[in-house]
Amino acid sequence: MEGRYPKAIMLTLAACSEPDHLDEWLDWYARIHTPDVTAAGIFVNMIRFMNTASDHEGRQIANLSETDFADPLEALEELKARGAPFVAENRRSEYTRVVEGGGPFVRVGGEFQFIKNAPVRGIYLEAMTLVGDAAVAGFNDWYNDRHIPAMLTPGIFQSAYRYQRVSAAGPTHSFLCIYETDRVDADRALVETRDQAGLPDQFVSSKLAWEMTARRIWPLEGR
To answer: What CATH number was assigned to the domain covering residues 8-104?
Structure first.
């Protein structure tokens, strides 16, 4: 997000179904899909990151796009209504495989937290869920006041943003935190951060749903 804290985001977790066509697929993403989606001006600043793990479980890339719509579901409907070109068959890629864990998210809790302004070369995505009847307010306080400050204290990750997934039925108990770093090796950055941070105990009745470190994919056509 590079210092922007949009009201909502769309996260797509996807992989290339044919490894031999990875370069072709990434080129399609940059030169066709990204400009097609962002042309309507509803979802903008589309940025992609490549998972640092070879065993990515289908989360090979994380594609993040931003919107000023307070309701990302409304933004998606508006995008469809404008007849965006990406819905045409000849604008799609046969190699795209989308997996669960992404979707529309809304900004939740606290202010934008950062410790420095530097180029974003890598990210850490942390997806957490509440189980049982855990209090959302308490979870948000733990995250914003304890967990994020501890993650940023070593100075390796420079900024953090928090979002909550929404569905047609309303807000869910799924949360996403995005940490940015100027390091290319985001995996090593996470290891060093955890070694130095002294992270607080996990919030009761919450669990880590999935996580990934990823490097930024250049160039950024379609922004």
So the answer is: 3.30.70.100
